[in-house]
């Protein structure tokens, strides 16, 4: 546990004078295209707290967008990073390889729900791993087309922007995008209810709708891969109806289509299982991981069935920094911490606490259309009173109000009307309750 005081404290209004000075420096030095959510600059972080340069301590309900799952200053990770950095920081695995890369791949092959013999390859970011998963699928199937889903988010590179559904801020003005990308309808129970209860609750029926689109618009003979987030992240923490994912996987297996699970945001204990695919008992062909894999160090991976992963030619996969030795040391320490400290179970405890508390708030406020999610990946969808109409303005106001009170919360969703909560698994129940107290108070004033 971090030695940082685990309590919310506002020494100044936000931003404080030191953060304000850094905001001015950013304006003069950093591209305007790089935005920030909070008007503060971090100095220290750990447990469930981020402390800024002015001495304000903020409750962290964002984990750097699901990255610091085990906390921002996990002792095992800090020690492993320091020890590896003293030995060497880089040699390039493709030139003079090292054990850490192999060890991370061994752990991924052990942990991921891939049937049979598996292989892994390491990269730097989620976007890079997604691109490589598509490369691998195309090589294996000798087909070109790829299907992603409504509300999907897969990254900010050219190909992954094409896979991503939301235009602003991710795609607007950055085209043209990679070709042979198609989109199918997702199972979105809260919104599908507008078209009938059966569609909202029957995942197999929702899958038939998606499969019909794929059959008609592309054809299985042209389709290399289907890529999907088992629980959507940026799209709104959407949990598909039960049966949706297994039905899609079954269709893919029957039609020589590679099923890629993008577990960048859901992986590594975040959802109350090591990987979100486990909730539905599915075994994808390829799994993409990043974010929580190395507690903030840049690392990502593709893990999959050996026959698929071994299909690219030698040197067809790689990259100068992929599987950096310091990042690999962090990943091994992260996995050790998750398993040794029982953090999968801790994620389930957080789910129970947050859903119970948010459910009570929802019972008294019909602007909360739905509370959903799994583990420490929980969201509320905000709507206009008495309707299912998205309320992006309320969402913005709640975020701003919580931020001013020293609570880090994030928004998401295609309609900009979802509050998402991604607390580190190292956070205390007391800080969780306090953060939700602040949110409830802000909501009551709107």
Task: Characterise the protein shown here.
There is one protein chain. The chain starts with 16 loop residues before the first helix and ends with a helix. Helix 13 runs parallel beside helix 15. The protein folds into two domains: 17-73 and 342-444, Alpha-Beta Complex (Aspartate Aminotransferase, domain 1); 77-340, Type I PLP-dependent aspartate aminotransferase-like (Major domain) (Aspartate Aminotransferase, domain 2, 3-Layer(aba) Sandwich). The chain is globular and about 60 Å long. The longest helix is centred in the C-terminal third of the chain and has 21 residues, at 343-363. With 446 residues, the protein is α/β, with parallel strands linked by helices. The mean pLDDT is 97. It is 38% helix and 16% strand. A hairpin with a 4-residue loop joins strand 2 (49-52) and strand 3. The strands form three sheets. It has a seven-stranded mixed beta sheet with strand order 4-10-9-8-7-5-6, sandwiched between helices. Strands 1-2-3-13 form a four-stranded mixed beta sheet. Strands 11-12-15-14 form a four-stranded antiparallel beta sheet, covered by helices on one side. It has helices at 17-29, 63-66, 75-87, 99-111, 126-141, 158-163, 189-192, 197-201, 203-217, 244-254, 306-309, 325-340, 343-363, 392-404, 429-444; strands at 42-46, 49-52, 57-60, 118-123, 145-149, 181-184, 223-228, 258-262, 286-289, 300-305, 368-374, 377-382, 407-408, 410-412, 418-421.
